[in-house]
Design a protein that fits this description.
The complex is a heterodimer of chains A (328) and B (348). Chain A contains twelve helices and two strands, in the order αααββααααααααα. Chain A has helices at 22-35, 37-60, 63-66, 87-118, 121-136, 139-165, 182-206, 210-218, 223-252, 255-260, 279-287, 292-326; strands spanning 70-74, 80-84. In chain A, strands 1-2 form a two-stranded antiparallel sheet. The longest helix of chain A has 35 residues, at 292-326. Chain B has two domains: 16-106; 132-347, Orthogonal Bundle (MetI-like fold). In chain B, 75% of the residues lie in helices and 0% in strands. Chain B is built from 13 helices and no strands. Chain B has helices at residues 16-39, 45-106, 110-114, 132-163, 168-179, 183-195, 204-229, 232-240, 245-256, 258-273, 277-282, 301-311, 314-347. Chain B is flat. Classes of the chains: A mainly alpha (328), B mainly alpha (348). The interface between A and B is large, with 94 and 91 residues.
Chain lengths: 328, 348
């Protein structure tokens, strides 16, 4: 062992190249470019709705949200007088959507519980398919069914409600006309959103940690005791998130609501009475006969609707992703 | 040797006594129901249903209470309520399907699916004219939407699963946001951006563009799920053999996920096939065949249903029911084929 061997230079670490080849660079560039299409589309929607709705927004200012008049006419001097306010329609949208949630959430949660914990395997498979199929039904189908099949029944239910609970303001009516009311529109919407809430709830319920379920059983819980103590606390957030997703859908629903609702520009909280509103179906209703001024207002209404659903969806997705991913 | 036969004990199984009690409670509540409905001014099938359910709940609860106490009572109550919830949902679906099939079949005939409405109006007696032009229009719309949104959706999904770039979180968030865009806003956007700004007039192409906005999120999310299921062994094997990432994705990952990707496209089509609101802004109406997607207004099944419903006469409404039956059949076929392809991709 010679001590004075010539000191070898320490070899440089071998270069491991991470620079992709040209073909990969092209591939990555194309895929990345396409992945931004969602951003571009959303930005374009906001941009163009704003550009085309700007004149109405500017003319109406804050009244666009707070006023409930919606008319445009030419006065004696030949000047066009326009007043556009979304208040009645916004209130109507919220009222209908909450009626829908009020009906749909209990039904959907019960259905999800039935599917996850009670249904025999065969029936479960069929029901899951049917509920998935329900989500794929065209909305105009709900509109047609709501108008011709549900309305006669729901009118009877509305009369019953009015008879027994008419002393509460919201169940009172100024005149006994019960057709085409927010109540009926709410029922139709509730059936449309049940599949959304059911499938999200079912997914969350089925992720309940098995050891907690078994622990509950081991402590002598009945099935309902287990569900109340373990599943419902675990899945509550998921149910809330699913309901908000459904709320976003309900806010934007157009055709089904238009078919069964009598759209009147008056802020109305009496849900059994035949007048209500919904931003989306108002757009459809006015679109055909709108002049340039009103068109701008309609597009601005679309912009309001766009942001409204975006916000609701944002919170919904936040809650759902958090719940499903963290498993808590 | 004589092996002793062992009968497993199932203490939870229903004893004959339990069965008798179940049968008894059903019978008793049925009788009570008839008595109640007959005695009160209530009427109709739904009244029978709900009175029966309430009485059954009460009578059966008494039996359960005797056997299993208050806890058992609450347990049985919850089970019955869950069952009731699912039953009400199924009744709604059943009512929808039944009304579509029974009312739709009345107006369905050979002419209805082979002719157009050029020589007939929707107020004419059933048997004159048909919706073949609308079926063609719907197919054109779907074709346009597929051509645009499939590359967009699948490439976005590839970005999220293969490249996993820095913007993945943002893109995923935006796709979720996009899936919540109301259909009426999609139509209004195409109207505001294209029809008001350019010489392009309503056509199947513009309708397809509006539908693309609704279809892309569905395709992307399903494709992403499917691509995530492809084992990373396959990707690593491809790279280890010296293939570039491009080759690995094109020749290994995508073929492995092929049937799943087809499912993604089919689900996207199911999402848009019945959309009505965007078409009212972007497609217009036309009574005859228009094979050119770029020029001239066109027709589509949902638009036919919409105008039939708003037409208000018995004939136009009958036409709407028949058209919705056709549309439902289209959706069902799409849905079933998605299931078949989905099953295939799961098996792999």
């Amino acid at each position: 062992m010679s001590v004075d061997a010539p000191a070898k230079p320490i070899p440089q670490a071998r270069q491991i190249t991470t620079k992709p080849r040209v073909s990969d660079q092209i591939f990555r560039a194309i895929v990345t470019a396409f992945s931004f299409s969602a951003l571009i589309i959303l930005a374009l929607i906001a941009l163009f709705l704003f550009l085309k709705g700007f004149s109405a927004l500017k003319a109406q200012g804050f009244n666009f949200i707070t006023s409930f008049e919606w008319n445009v006419f030419t006065d004696e001097t030949g000047k066009e007088v326009a007043s556009f306010g979304l208040q009645a329609m916004l209130v109507g949208t919220v009222v209908i959507s909450f009626i829908a949630l009020f009906i749909a959430v209990p039904l959907a949660v019960l259905t999800a519980l039935f599917l996850t914990f009670y249904a025999p395997e065969g029936i479960k498979k069929i029901l899951v398919t049917v509920i998935d199929l329900m989500a794929a039904f065209p909305s105009i189908l709900y509109g047609l069914w709501g108008y011709f099949v549900l309305m006669p029944m729901a009118e009877y239910w509305a009369k019953l409600l009015h008879k027994w609970l008419g002393w509460i303001y919201i169940f009172d009516v100024p005149e006994p006309i019960f057709q085409r009311s927010p109540f009926i529109a709410g029922i139709v919407l509730s059936i449309m959103i049940i599949p959304i809430i059911t499938s999200v709830s079912r997914e969350v319920f089925s992720q309940t940690p098995l050891e907690r379920v078994q622990a509950a059983y081991a402590l002598g819980a009945t099935k309902w005791g287990m569900i109340r103590a373990v599943v419902l606390p675990f899945g509550a957030n998921g149910v809330v998130g699913g309901s908000m997703l459904a709320l976003g859908r309900a806010f934007g629903e157009t055709v089904a609501v238009f078919s069964v609702l009598n759209i009147v520009y008056r802020t109305n909280f009496q849900i059994l009475y035949t007048q209500g509103g919904n931003v989306a179906s108002m757009i459809i209703q006015r679109f055909g006969e709108a002049g340039a001024t009103e068109m701008s207002a309609l597009i601005a209404a679309g912009l309001v609707l766009f942001f409204l659903t975006l916000i609701v969806n944002f919170f919904a997705n936040y809650i759902v992703t958090k719940t499903v991913k963290s498993g808590r | 040797m004589n092996t002793p036969s062992v009968t497993p004990i199932k203490p939870w199984a229903a004893t004959p006594r339990d069965r008798a009690m179940t049968a008894g409670s059903v019978l008793l509540s049925a009788l009570t129901t008839f008595a109640i409905v007959a005695a009160t001014p209530m009427k109709g099938k739904l009244a029978y249903f709900f009175v029966f359910f309430v009485t059954w709940l009460a009578i059966d609860s008494v039996f359960v209470m005797r056997k299993a106490g208050a806890k058992g009572l609450r347990n049985g109550f919850a089970e019955k309520l869950a069952f009731l919830g699912a039953l009400i949902v199924m009744m709604a679906v059943g009512s929808i399907l039944w009304s579509v099939i029974s009312r739709g079949l009345e107006g369905l005939n050979i002419a209805y699916v082979t002719q157009n409405m050029r020589n007939a109006s929707m107020f004419d007696p059933i048997g004159m004219g048909g919706v073949a032009h609308a079926i063609l229009g719907t197919l054109l719309l779907i074709a346009v939407a597929i051509v645009i949104s499939v590359p967009m959706g699948i490439l976005t999904a590839l970005y999220l699963t293969e490249i996993k770039g820095k913007a993945s979180g943002l893109i995923e968030f935006l796709i979720q946001a996009m899936s919540g865009v109301p259909s009426v806003v999609a139509g209004l956007f195409i109207y505001a951006a294209i029809i008001l700004n350019t010489p392009l007039r309503p056509s199947a192409f513009l309708g397809g563009l509006a539908l693309t906005i609704l279809m892309v999120p569905t395709v992307t999310r399903t494709a992403q799920e499917v691509l995530n299921l492809v084992p990373s062994d396959l990707r690593e094997a491809g790279l280890a053999m010296g293939a570039t990432q491009w080759k690995t994705v094109a020749l290994v990952v995508v073929p492995a996920a092929r049937s799943g990707l087809i499912t993604a496209v089919i689900l996207g089509v199911a999402r848009i096939a019945g959309e009505t609101a965007p078409l009212l802004f972007t497609v217009g109406t036309f009574d005859s065949f228009n094979l050119n997607p770029f020029v001239g207004q066109n027709s589509a099944l949902p638009v036919i249903i919409w105008s039939g419903l708003n037409g208000g006469s018995a004939e136009s409404i009958q036409r709407a029911w028949s058209a919705i039956l056709l549309l439902l059949v289209v959706v069902l076929v799409i849905f079933v084929s998605a299931r078949i392809f989905g099953k295939k991709s799961m098996k792999k």
